Amino acid sequence: MSQLAPPDPLFDTPAPQDNAWSCLLQLEAQVQLTQTSLSLHTSKLSTLCQTTKTISNSLWALLKCLSTAPAASPPSPMPAPRFSVTRPASPVQGRANIPCPVLPDAYNGDRASGERFLQSCVTYIQLCGNNFLSDKLKIAWVLSYMKSEWAATYAMRVFQRPGGITGFADWAAFKQEF
Are 171 and 137 in contact (CB under 8 A)? Predict the structure, then answer.
């Protein structure tokens, strides 16, 4: 019977070429992962660019719509101070000077507070009606308070759909969808 010879230490240790090959395979795997990640980020960036372009187009349409609105005193860029008294240019029969209403809080999309938010907006619009000459302006103003969470997503979808805010027939249609 022949006896097996002990292993030759020269054949059991990996050759330098094997280590280099292993490193090359690891680097190739890392390159592929990096390319996949880059491709994903490029796709996301493309989507964000398209969203930005859509919102920009909607805002331009809104500006165009507002520039064709009947001439009136432009609303002040800063909100009126809370609890200040407004004085109409000409006294209105049977109407005393009323304090400016409180601006609505930003809305996050919480269903439980949605009705209160909308009522706060409606109250403000009714009390400051001369600042809201069109339904489109009312809708844009309400959407401007939808700044976070689900409300921000809803506002962005409104601006992204064809026609943006002009897609609503009127203020009543917006309130109904809200």
Answer: no
**Residue 59, CA distances (Å) to 55, 98, 124, 158, 161 in order:** 6, 33, 23, 11, 12
pLDDT, greater one: 57 or 102: 102
Percentages helix, strand, coil for the chain, rounded to the nearest 5?
Answer: 60, 0, 35
- pTM for the whole structure: 0.46
The confidence score (pLDDT) of residue 120 equals 92
Beta bridge partners of 150: none
State how far the Cα of 80 lies from the Cα of 100, in Å rounded to an integer: 7
For residues 117 and 107, is the Cβ–Cβ distance under 8 A? yes
- Residues β-bridged to residue 99: 85
Q: What is d(CA 100, CA 156) in angstroms, rounded to the nearest whole number? A: 29
Question: Three-state SS for 31?
Answer: helix
